[in-house]
Design brief:
By secondary structure, this protein is an alpha+beta fold. About 20% of the residues lie in helices and about 40% in strands. It has a twelve-stranded antiparallel sheet. Helix 2 (about 45-60) runs antiparallel to helix 5. This is PaaI family thioesterase.
Length: about 270
């Protein structure tokens, strides 16, 4: 399934290849995309892919009067995942998701990520089952075909606010295209942006590049783009070969909506 450009999945180039209650498969282009804070290749789009496909297989488990929203997302990448992706930028990363364990208050899915048939990572998504909303937001009118914006910041509707030292900040611009069907920033968009600031907080791109190894995101409350909405990250540790950063998404009201921890190696 191809998604129109006026949807967050279409903006990010996601294609759903197969879907059903036992297995869902989707792909996303990653090669050639750069972190706007460091201008180096990034694994951030994988968070969008994982949130979509892991959430989709959980969504198939809902009852008729239920909806699902992401509550947790975790990604583990192999040591050379980004090297494989950048070596063949025209090849998308493919994710295959399956339900993991029984349905509960928070149902869990397990995904396998491959690139050119090679395993590059695993991921989990936990989704809350909530009462179905009374209505869903219509996609904005506008272009529904063509190609996504070339730069990753355009696809995510973010702009650089601050980088340097051990602090990195991206603003989340208000843009209905990157919202989900209940009118808040798509969970995959916000998770990807948290990866960007988290990896940027570890270094400015000089020296040996950091390779993201793991990303864990907790969704605490609804997050919307706005004049003060932003993603912030600070390094907790930057050693010779490993680094850890904490990141958060902060809404216009100053409340923290998402938190994340990123671990990277070089």
């Amino acid at each position: 399934m191809h998604y129109p450009l006026n949807t967050p999945l279409g903006r990010m180039g996601v294609q759903t290849l197969e879907e059903g209650p036992d297995r869902c498969v989707a792909s996303i282009p990653v090669g050639g995309l750069l972190n706007p804070l460091t201008r180096v290749p990034t694994a951030a789009p994988l968070a969008m892919l994982v949130d979509h496909i892991g959430g989709l297989v959980n969504h198939y488990r809902r009852d008729d009067d239920e909806w699902t929203v992401s509550s947790e997302l975790a990604i583990e990448l192999t040591p050379h995942a980004l090297e494989l992706v950048t070596a063949a930028p025209g090849e998308p990363v493919v994710a295959t998701a399956r339900p993991f364990g029984p349905k509960g208050t928070g149902s869990l899915s397990l995904s396998e990520l491959t690139h050119g048939g090679q395993l590059v990572g695993t991921a989990t998504v936990r989704s809350f089952h909530i009462h179905a909303p009374g209505h869903v937001v219509a996609w904005p009118s506008g272009s529904t075909d063509g190609i996504p914006p070339a730069a990753l910041e355009g696809r995510l509707s973010v702009e650089v606010a601050e980088t340097g030292g051990q602090v990195a900040v991206l603003r989340q611009l208000p843009d209905p295209v990157i919202n989900n069907s209940i009118g808040i920033v798509h969970g995959g968009v916000s998770a990807a942006a948290l990866e960007l600031v988290g990896s940027a907080a570890l270094g400015d791109g000089t020296g040996a590049p950091w390779q993201t190894a793991s990303l864990r995101v907790n969704y605490l409350r609804q997050f919307r783009g706005g004049n003060e909405s932003r993603y912030e990250a600070r390094a907790l540790r930057t050693g010779r070969s490993s680094g850890v950063a904490d990141a958060q998404a902060i809404g216009d009201d100053g409340a923290v909506a998402l938190i994340a921890r990123l671990t990277a190696y070089r």
